[in-house]
Amino acid sequence: IYRRATPTTLPTFLLLGPSGSGKTALLTLAERAQAATTRTSTSPLAVEALLPDGLTPASSSYRSAGDPAFERARRFQLIDTPGHGKLRHYAISKLANPTNVRGIIFVVDAASVADETGLNEAAEYLHDVLLALQKRYTGAKTSKGPTEIPVLIAANKSDLFTALPPHLIKLSLEKAISNVRKSRATGLKESGAVLTADQGDLEEEREWLGEGGEGPFEFWQMEEVGMSVDVRGGNVVGTDGADVKTWFKWIADQL
Ligand code: GTP
Ligand code: MG
């Protein structure tokens, strides 16, 4: 496969999510307007992509197509990461140093989150991603705070008849993340990681995703730490072709 060396100054979107959700398929579609056959990824992959015709980068809404600045603003970089549980250090290290990262695209398989195993795997990974971004935000030393990083949950494979609709995926993930949050907090206490009572409170606070308290986790809570979370459905492959308009629209809004 031909790969261009991509300049790192382009606005970048990170593709994260469980194994098999369709990240590499989406990357190949964005790169050459057609999804290629993929196999499980073992390393990250960066490609340069162009916003499809008909979509306007938010920063160029007052310009018209053909204007050089408009054309430049359509370019972005996509970085695919392996979703396998043992290979997530690639993704996590990108999150720790998100230079030029304009947004996170967390791809889930809309059919596999219909069952508990698939849902919990996605929720655990998403919990860790959101917590990493939250820590980055609350730990920032500058008075301005770090730039905000929006998150798109791309509910992929909507062509499958077992796929859940986006609003149900949102509710299911919020509920499952509430459980992950609770069990992680318990694990932290039992692991004896706590030194003194004071430090313990602090430690727990930093490891707690979203609002304090025992209430359920909901995605809007991430707005306080500079993250909007959007859930939008689509499909990369399927008998009627790809339907990725809502995701590219989201990308356009971040450019
Ligand atoms: P890892 O590399 O292991 O993290 O997985 P991945 O997220 O890169 O998954 P990949 O893109 O390799 O896709 C996994 C499988 O799902 C492939 O067989 C794709 O053809 C299939 N797939 C991807 N998108 C869709 C879709 O929208 N609908 C259907 N039905 N299948 C899809
Ligand atoms: Mg892959």
What does this structure look like?
Helix content is 36%, strand content 15%. It is an alpha/beta fold and 255 residues long. It has one domain: P-loop containing nucleotide triphosphate hydrolases (Rossmann fold), CATH 3.40.50. The chain has a six-stranded mixed β-sheet, with helices on both faces. The longest helix has 25 residues. It is globular, with a radius of gyration of 19 Å. The structure holds guanosine-5'-triphosphate (GTP) and magnesium ion. The site of guanosine-5'-triphosphate has 23 residues, from helix 1.
Question: What are its keywords?
Answer:
36% helix; 6-stranded mixed β-sheet; 7 helices; globular; 6 strands; 255 residues; binds guanosine-5'-triphosphate; binds magnesium ion; Rossmann fold; alpha/beta; single chain
CATH superfamily: P-loop containing nucleotide triphosphate hydrolases
> Strand order across the biggest sheet?
2-3-1-4-5-6
CATH architecture identity: 3-Layer(aba) Sandwich
Major sheet size, sense and barrel closure = 6 strands, mixed
Count of separate DSSP helical elements: 7
Overall structural class, as computed from helix and strand content, comes to: alpha/beta
Give the overall pLDDT as a whole number. Answer: 86
Text of the CATH class: Alpha Beta
**Ligand species:** guanosine-5'-triphosphate, magnesium ion
Helix % is 25-40%
Set down the secondary structure blueprint.
Elements: E1 12-16, H1 23-32, E2 45-50, H2 68-73, E3 75-80, H3 89-96, E4 101-109, H4 116-138, E5 151-156, H5 166-190, H6 197-207, E6 229-233, H7 245-254
Parallel strand pairs: 1-3, 1-4, 4-5, 5-6
Antiparallel strand pairs: 2-3
Helix pairs in contact: 4-5
This protein binds guanosine-5'-triphosphate and magnesium ion.
Magnesium ion binds at residues 23-24, 38, 41, 80.
